[in-house]
Amino acid sequence: MRAALKRIGYSDVYHMDSCMENPPDNDMWQQAIDAKYYGKGMPFGREEWDQLLGHCEACIDCPTANFMPELIAAYPKAKVIVCMRDPEAWYQSLSSTINYISHSYFLTALSFVEPFFLGRWIPFVHALGIGMFDGKMYTDAGFTKSRYIQMHEEVRQIVPKDQLLEYKLGDGWKPICDFLGKDVPDVPFPRVNEAVEFRDRIGVMKKEGIKRVARNTLPYLGAVAGLGLIYRYLRT
């Protein structure tokens, strides 16, 4: 959906990828998550959402989807597209992306020694998943899928009918373009395997994280080695 919205003119579409592209965003998302799910700090209002998302023309998927009531309250004139997938297919996608991260001991360990990105992003992903699904995301598939359905129903209840589009994957360009007042592109609707792309991006994140750890630690290791050589020289 991000690729589709960009194709019809929305150049800045916020998505989980945006959190990877701009690591400081994770700090604000952590604050929003703490306030909503854990009772820490003040819930975000229009000022905080503008600071985090004010440069965007649209937002989709997590983490913004987890804050739909708050975002609709902050932007009451916004148009909303509900794109509900088959709950089982959605859960399988979740298992191969977010669950994969949450069960990656390597990424978790790396987050403790690479604070710039992984040290921000991994705790944020953990906190979001646990808060949204009451800690049952990894242990209760039925509850997780029912919460997914419930989240969509909440949106239907609070968005005015003339600002809401129920979209099904496979419906193509016309429903979206008619709803948003855009011309229908003369190219096929984008089809992206998000799970595969996500895993590929995680692989890049691991490599980049290791590089940053190496850059940050090698000077100190060199210094320690140098001190060791000096000590050995003085002992001889």
What does this structure look like?
- This protein is mostly helical and 236 residues long.
- The protein is built from twelve helices and four strands, in the order αβαααβαβαααααβαα.
- It has a two-stranded parallel sheet. Strands 3-4 form a two-stranded parallel ribbon.
- Helix 6 packs across helix 10 (141-158) and helix 8 packs across helix 12 (194-235).
- The longest helix has 42 residues, at 194-235.
- Mean pLDDT is 83; it is low at 220-231.
Number of H- or I-type helical stretches:
12
The spatial strand order of the largest sheet comes to 1-2
Strand content: under 5%
Largest sheet: 2 strands, parallel
Rg: 22 Å
Write the SSE topology.
Elements: H1 2-7, E1 13-14, H2 16-21, H3 25-38, H4 46-53, E2 58-59, H5 68-74, E3 80-82, H6 87-96, H7 98-102, H8 105-113, H9 118-132, H10 141-158, E4 164-166, H11 173-180, H12 194-235
Parallel strand pairs: 1-2, 3-4
Helix pairs in contact: 3-9, 6-10, 8-9, 8-12
